[in-house]
Amino acid sequence: MNSHILVIDDEKNYLLILETILEEEGYTVTALNDPQMALDYLDESEVDVVITDMKMPGISGQDILEHIQKHHAQIPVLIMTAYGSIDGAVEAMRCGAFDYISKPFSNDELMLSVRKAALLSKSEQEKRLMTQTLAEQYGPHKLVGNSRSIREVLQMVSKVAPSRSTVLITGESGTGKELIARAIHYSSPRREGPFISINCMSLSPGVLESELFGHEKGSFTGATAMKKGRFELADGGTLFLDEVGELSQDLQVKLLRVLQEKAFERVGGSRTIHADIRLVAATNKDLKQAVEKGEFREDLYYRLNVVGINLPPLRERREDIPVLVAHFMQKFSSENQQELKKFAPEALEYLTAYEWPGNVRQLENVVERCMVLASREEIGVEDLPSEIKDEEAQFKSAVDLLPVELELSGTLEKIEAALIRRALVKSGFVQVKAAELLNISKSLLQYKLKKYNIQPK
């Protein structure tokens, strides 16, 4: 990498020597003997590493360091100092300098320090680029959908993201809860910090405790070394606890303590560790019901649910399906360098009418399958999976969404409301056509729209 190094020294001989050595190693070098000019240059130019003398008239190396720490913290600073000023150099390192170089210096020692500083600078640049890319990918403006319900979710994300408040995201599996968690993180002041996630359902309670809080060497069989947990790894960023409703009672108590005291101990350890995290949790369970049954602590529920965001199932925002289909087609076409295909209008109608028990995740998988297997540029009904194009299979998938224990009259009303929504979407929200699809009069349709509080668009 051809790093750009700024060298600052009021002694022109040292400037010339450093410029020659560094340029021979392939670096781009700017050498300045005026510290004020160097500060102005820093504010106007892209610099990867700064090498500055400690003692200079007017503006010292310490002043240069403080300016860089305040305005360009990503730039590593190497301090040059005479032997008699080593104490000052050590103090500068305490203040954030990357390293110090003694005058007269060894070329090998100088180059070793410069290489390390240049690598650090490159690493920081890559990290910033990655953060920017992720923020663009997961920012609220990148979440797909135009329905009123998804717009309300995006408004909530925009409002809660700048705060430190704990967020509880609820919704069925496959609705995109982790996507919302990432959008909150990458739209927040913590965007440059880590986003750490863990699925609480995928691990046994003992393993999950170690994953969350870390463990000390020898704390249990197989603990051959100290390991940091997710809370430590998320320091300065966001920790996402997916399926938080699956936590054991013991872990619920420990999580509550962390939320209250902002502190914890590793498994097998006694030292209290503090971590600055923003917690976002998600569940597909009804936690209120779990509280009533004694399965989930009420105090923890209220700690988690400071701000609640509910993601609606895909079947309740069918108008977003064509938009999502177009998004996934573009995504898979770009990823696989494949010619962009399109769905025939009739095939798209089938997709829009389907109940989608697996929600957005299932839709994404179906679009990918069709893109891979369809032999023509236009994807037809015959290319769709059987469960989507088969009316009987569609009905079965809708019934499978219902709970085993249900109250019949209320359930039938929910099914009727779902059929009315589907007919509206299929008819392009033209009420006369929707009534014809349902084989009812327009006036009866309007009565039911009012009864079920369905917006005709």
Automatic annotation (TrEMBL):
Keyword RNA-binding in record: no
Segments forming domain Sigma-54 factor interaction: 143-372
Alphabetical list of Pfam families matching this protein: AAA_lid_14, HTH_8, Response_reg, Sigma54_activat
Segments forming domain Response regulatory: 4-118
InterPro entries associated with the record: AAA+_ATPase, AAA_lid_NorR, CheY-like_superfamily, Homeodomain-like_sf, HTH_Fis, P-loop_NTPase, Sig_transdc_resp-reg_receiver, Sigma_54_int
Keywords: Activator, ATP-binding, Cytoplasm, DNA-binding, Nucleotide-binding, Phosphoprotein, Transcription, Transcription regulation, Two-component regulatory system
GO molecular function: ATP binding; sequence-specific DNA binding
Protein name per its UniProtKB record: Two component, sigma54 specific, transcriptional regulator, Fis family
